[in-house]
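We treat protein structure as text, and this decision shapes the records that our systems exchange. The remainder of this section carries one protein's record, kept here as part of the documentation:
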Amino acid sequence: MKSWLRVIATTSMIAAAAIVPAGAQAEPAPAAGARYVALGDSGAATTGVAELDVTAPLRCVRSTVNAPKLVAERLDLAVDDRTCSSAEIPDLYTSQGPGIAPQLDALGPATEIVTLHIGANDADMTEFILGQCHAGAATGGCAAAADPEWDRRIDAIAPAYAAALDEIARRAPRATVFVDGWPTYLTDTSCPAMLGLLDADAAYIQSKFDRLNTVVAGEAAAHGAVYLDTVTASREFGMCADPALRWFDPILADQTLLPYHPTLAGQRGVAALIVDAVAASGVLNR
């Protein structure tokens, strides 16, 4: 999500600039399209700077052990990983910055598998979570003063998401698209690692991710994509879980430096669900 990634991307650029060739070009677009293409934002791109892929555009903060790369390893496929931190749906079509090609450029008639995780930035999830829930914890919290604008912004991504799925199908007519939603971040209680977040606000934040999942799942079903429910599998592994098990780092991030972003355990968990869905679809046996 955007606010955290603006800081971490700048740090990553400074740390890695000395070992990345100057004048790096945008990632080339294969004429026929890669067989497996990964699209999305930081939820798919990163596990933090500890596993930074310095061959990728630095502002994307893309990981060497993110879910797309783990899926590719399990399926013995090469992946054209175009995921990029802070990405919004329009960034699928246009360059997100210098050296970053539009994500959809990776698609083509040879593409068979597409994974897609995007939409949280379009719905301004970070801005509401930080600006209302965490900032307001000392004065009653966000659940007690629910802002209907948050729901409106979540619901408003539906047309753009639908159009993106249609464009993926147009560019890669043979591809099966696997859409993974947002796993369990919080349940009905908070914890010290969330630095004062109220219990009611923990449940409230999760309800917004659940609403986002409902929007995306609906568009996936309507446009022929396979939707993966990641909430159930991650129910016991939210930000207040044992650090060795949790799928996301809390505010006191000790694994990724990125609160509300997936740990390696989280990326492994999502990757396993995607691998199972790909196997069940039979796409690799065509």
Remarks:
- The CA atoms of residues 40 and 117 lie 5 Å apart.
- The domain at 2-20+31-281 is CATH 3.40.50.1110 (Rossmann fold).
